[in-house]
Amino acid sequence: MATATAEAVTSPPPLRQRRIRSALKHAGLLVFVAFMIYPLVWMVVSAFKPADQILTEPGLIPSSVTLDNFKDGWHALNRPFSVFFVNSLVVTLGSIVGNLFSCSLTAYALARLQFRMRKVYFAITLASVMLPFHVLVIPQYIFFSQLDLVNTYWPLLIPKFLATDAFFVFLMVQFIRTLPRELDRAAWIDGAGPFLTFWYVVLPLMRPALVTTTIFTFIWTWNDFFVPLIYLTRTQVFTVPVALNSMVDSETQSGVGMLFAMSLLSLVPILIFFAIAQKYLIRGIATTGLK
């Protein structure tokens, strides 16, 4: 009798109960997803609405569709919006090259080379991750201003070539530590120095970490608004986020449609890049110590 009771207690719930629970969970997730994507869907719909209907008809089904927002927004700042796309692309590609070059070299030195205060330098690097960027804004601006580099892209690119993104340094250090040191010793026996060992042995094996760094750098730099806003004040050097902000400041209510239209276009490179690189991102995170 006791055995039968124990079996009844430990037996799984009936199939119908499991289906009901699964349906409720999926329904809750769908409601959550609907709340999350509603602003994006509303922006997409509003980009195709006439300007006078965006705020007066907030529904998702427009009464009329127009492309005037894209036509007007493309030349809203007295120059084609493609100029700002090119500016963002220059800054983004330069940041990617800078991070890949400087962070990989720094990570190799911290992970493989033996020198005094190596652990101290690595601790300082990790501590800089927790340092708010806003603390450094004023001294950095004064420094670049004295060098007459304001309104150029150098203040945005020079820090990338100095391994200031400590997150990527840490990520690469964790990955290099998983590589067997026997590869380094074999290269040294063949006469390779530290740099040749890094270039021909370690760097080719760092592909997952390099891909992860590339993806995150692209997304973060393309969407970055604060830093370009500080250093770029001339319209011809604006990046896409700064151009969108300038459009908000310079337009009245009629400019809302243009803002949504250009914001929608600014998302296209991110979506395309993420769609292409998604599998590499997952693979890179899984193999770089962020499991």
UniProtKB/TrEMBL annotation:
Q: Which UniProt keywords apply?
A: Cell membrane, Membrane, Sugar transport, Transmembrane, Transmembrane helix, Transport
Give the transmembrane region(s): 27-48, 84-108, 120-144, 156-176, 197-222, 256-277
Matches recorded under InterPro entries: MetI-like, MetI-like_sf
Query: Pfam families under this entry?
Result: BPD_transp_1 (PF00528)
**Matching SUPFAM superfamilies:** MetI-like
The yes or no answer to whether the keyword Transmembrane helix is present is yes
Membrane association type: Multi-pass membrane protein
Spell out the subcellular localization from the entry.
Cell membrane
What sequence ranges are listed for the domain ABC transmembrane type-1?
85-277
What's the family?
A: Belongs to the binding-protein-dependent transport system permease family.
Q: What is this protein called?
A: Multiple sugar transport system permease protein
Taxonomic source organism: Kribbella orskensis
